[in-house]
Amino acid sequence: MQNDLPKLALLIDVENVSPAMLPSILETLKQTWDPFLRRAYGSDLAPCRKILTDCGISPVQLLRNVKGKSISDQAICIGCMEILHAGRANGICLVSGDSDFTQLVFHVREQNVPILVFGNESTPSALRNACTEFHIIPRQSNNRTRPYIDSDAGVVHKLGKAEIDADHLKDRLHELYREFISINELCTVDIFGGFVRQKIPSFSCKQYSARSISSLLRRLGGFELRGITNNDQIVVNYEVSQTSVN
Description:
Helix content is 32%, strand content 21%. The protein has helices at residues 22-29, 49-54, 72-86, 102-110, 125-130, 166-181, 189-199, 213-220, and strands at 7-13, 34-42, 58-61, 91-95, 115-119, 133-136, 147-150, 155-158, 223-227, 234-238.
């Protein structure tokens, strides 16, 4: 039941993200949280009144004192601190990719309170790394995509039809591995995963029932994963003797 889930305060920066993605974000959060408090901050909320109403989100209309300057940041920070120190929520979710929130996110996490962030693909790494979980908001398209949480990486990917059939995935990853290793001396799991997503934007491990790139490579076979002594990195090698195995 929804009431049995941990309480989550949802704070949305409408000036930074598209309100059209809010139903999808709520659908994702409701799987593991009870977003009992939902606020959307902005200086012009009238155009998105319907979607806020449909999602049960309370609008916080702000007055702009300086033209062209975002005014949501301070209001969200104040609201977040009030919620945090009142102990009203088990976790806080910030919907914004604005790096100005990095210090706020650091503070919430240091209070031992989970802080989730939903941001677009251009969200700075400082904000991504500061939060407990970072979730990528899919770009809008004619076909709706729903984000999901990869619990290993704490990142939201886009669900949809796999661009490459699983039967051909191993061959494609082998091609990308050879391309990567031709210009890099060392191939680690994390860097190789980023390289694959760069080459195949729609790629998601979840599409192949894997929770991470390392588990996917192990499942496909042919790839050797080994740790580096005194280092947390895992190196990827492709076993040449298996290149002809389908």
